[in-house]
Structures
1.
Amino acid sequence: MFPYLVAATAGLGLLAGLVVRLIDNRDFPDYGTAVWWAVVTLATVGYGDVVPHTGWGRVVGSVVIVVGVTLLSFLIAIVTSYFVSLQEDEKAAREQEQRERELVEDRELLQRIEQRLTAIEARLP
């Protein structure tokens, strides 16, 4: 999932840069500046060194901001889910080891009981 999120973010940055360059070429004199603005806006940093001043430029900016916050939320959820999954896997492994130890202990106890019963039966007439 993470690679798709990175690819979507990169693609959106390039696309948003292109769109804002086309509709607001006064504030974004070249594609590089437009992509820079899109990436900074997607990352919710917003340096303010380059900003759209036209209505449509602001509309694109608003969409990029909302999508950036959403993508960051997904990223945080993915990372959190990964760590929770690791903890659950470790817990399951510890529980499995504990069950295996208990089985070994139970077998050993049963063997000792069987040996005692055998010794008792041997003493009976």
Note: The mean pLDDT is 91.
2.
Amino acid sequence: MNPAEPADFPLGRWNLYIGGAGRTVDGCINLDLFPMPGVDVAADAEHLPFLPDIFQRVECDAVLEHVRDPVRVMCEIQRVLAPGGYVHLVTPFCHPFHEYPKDYRRFTLDGLKELAAPLEVVAEGWRTGPTATLLVFVIEYVKLLLPWRIWRGAAHLICGWLLFPFRYLDLLLFRMPEARRIGNHCYLWLRKP
């Protein structure tokens, strides 16, 4: 994770977390496609079941690659976001295919900004960098070579544990403009005027 990524944009009285996948998200209404423990509202992000201008902050972390119509999702986010409210988007760029329930696309920072218009960009950058990209592909490659699911699961845990310390190399690489060419996840913080 990039320590330069801002995390101090305020939560309001009403906050929405899209794609919580069953985890508890303090201070937020947790919305996901399927009902499961921790999910407050099961709904499709393309049709948010909320009134306009209600949320002071919306988190959408690694969700847009899984939706059929990201333009529609962004229109819905803008609709439910209160004036002066903030949106935090995180999307993969160089990252392996992963279905939940589908995986449709990847985003560059420029593509994400285009998708988020007319919201005002207040911060942008890379959450995870080139080293994270390399490591996640190595893990997926090793899993590809194994015949049984349990072996792939074990390889994921073991390789992840062994390779994790190398992720700290990204702390150096985040300073290099060229690092964006193979960055793993990008982020935007946006504000609704």
Note: The radius of gyration is 17 Å.
